[in-house]
Design goal:
Blueprint: H1 17-69, E1 84-91, E2 94-98, E3 104-107, E4 116-121, E5 131-132, E6 143-147, E7 160-164, E8 168-174, E9 177-180, E10 187-191, E11 225-230, E12 233-241, E13 247-253, E14 261-265, E15 267-276, E16 287-289, E17 306-316, E18 332-334, E19 337-339, E20 370-378, H2 380-383
Parallel strand pairs: 1-8
Antiparallel strand pairs: 1-2, 3-4, 4-12, 5-11, 6-10, 7-8, 7-11, 9-10, 12-13, 13-14, 15-16, 15-17, 17-20, 18-19
Length: 386
């Protein structure tokens, strides 16, 4: 048998130190690329997330205000005119006079700070159908007799009512109970006695302090009417910015007298303007004005000229940018001029300059992103009356 030729065993070769070092360098380069890509995508994700949060806050704030503003003025009109120029109410054992009694009142913020809004409307389904007073009401008896044409289900204990004549100050009271007269079903007696059911009423011996001289008479020429305001939704929207320049939109129930409640975080400012017509009997908005000068407290004769309100809120993202932002995110270029203190509220014209947002209270304000949300709300309950 032939013997196979002898072959030496194969030599096993391993990785040298140079091979290992080259592999480590390639791996480190790959890790650096991966982490840089991850960091870039994570930064983009954070910016998108916080921008979305700011968008949700801004839309929530604007939607909440708009929903209630569309109801503003409901229950405040009779025979194509405002029932009350103002009203008297009983608070802490004293009569209090409320003068600014428009469907929407804008309080102008000083030095470009945020404006605030006060809205008033009836929550009763019968707020648009006031009842006429049938018997003189002079305060000697805490009872108001009105017509019962619609039915005694219109009023219930706890409802706020406004008693008055068109063009005069009203009296705000609260229904403590309702009495029907079986002998005269056309009449309905509204009790306005003080107590736990109707705490907004004064004691019987002080009821006359809320009434005008001579009380309210059964006058067919200039009738005294009673408007059912239900829970009388009278609320104020305002922006509260704390010491750390974190802002939130708050709503305060003025009728209930409760503390303000935050409804949207990240809101740094709110600006509003009246949209006014040339006359009360025209529906076209001819100009937009701040709540300043003659429009800081609109005269009663001009109330019907306010046909719309335009509102803008600015929301800030919570993500701090390493570099200062430039452009429209932080600078307002408008017809009325350039503002380097914040973004634009809305595009304006030379005749109707828009208000500006001043965000410079925070020294590093340019390191954040901002979004402005705006809308125009027609006051339909006003427009329908003129």
């Amino acid at each position: 048998m032939a013997r196979l030729p002898h072959r030496p065993p194969r030599r096993e070769l391993g990785m040298s130190l140079i091979d290992i070092l080259v592999g480590m360098v390639i791996g480190l380069i790959g890790m650096i690329i991966v982490f840089q890509s991850f960091n870039a995508f994570e930064g983009q994700k954070r910016a998108t997330t916080v921008t979305n949060d700011a968008q949700e806050s801004g839309l929530m704030a604007l939607t909440t205000i708009e929903r209630e503003m569309r109801l503003a003025g409901y229950g405040m009109f009779y025979q194509n005119d405002t029932i009350c120029t103002g009203y008297r109410q009983w608070v802490n054992n004293n009569p209090v006079q409320i003068d600014s009694f428009l469907p929407v009142v804008i309080t102008n913020g000083a030095s470009n700070t945020s404006d605030s809004l006060t809205l008033t409307f009836s929550t009763s389904g019968f707020g648009a159908t006031p009842s006429q007073v049938q018997v003189d009401f002079k305060g000697a008896l805490p009872e108001i007799v009105v017509d019962n044409n619609i039915g005694n289900t219109v009023y219930k204990a706890g409802d706020y009512i406004l008693v008055g004549r068109v063009g005069q100050a009203c009296t705000r009271l609260q229904v403590s109970s309702v009495r029907t007269d079986p002998q005269n079903p056309r009449f309905l007696a509204l009790k306005v006695e003080a107590g736990s059911t109707a705490p907004a009423n004064p004691p019987a011996d002080k009821l006359n302090l809320l009434l005008p001289a001579g009380g309210y008479t059964n006058d067919r020429v200039r009738p005294t009417v009673v408007a059912n305001m239900g829970a009388m939704r009278r609320v104020s929207y305002a922006v509260n910015v704390d010491a750390n320049h974190n802002g939130r939109l708050q709503v305060e129930d003025i009728t209930a007298g409760t503390a303000p409640v935050a409804i949207a975080d990240g809101i740094l400012g709110m600006q509003a303007q009246y949209g006014i017509s040339a006359a009360t009997n025209t529906q076209e908005v001819s100009s937009w004005v701040d709540a300043a000068g003659s429009w800081a407290a609109p005269a009663f004769a001009d109330q019907g000229r306010v046909k719309a309100i335009r509102i803008a809120v600015v929301a800030r993202s919570q993500h701090y940018e390493k570099d200062e932002l430039t452009g429209l995110d932080v600078v307002c270029n408008n017809t009325s001029g350039t503002n380097d203190k914040g973004p634009c509220a809305w595009r304006d014209t030379a005749g109707n300059p828009a208000p500006i947002f001043d965000l410079t209270g925070k020294s590093d304000w340019k390191h954040y992103r901002y979004r402005v949300y705006e809308t125009i709300v027609p006051l339909r309950n006003v427009m329908w009356q003129y």
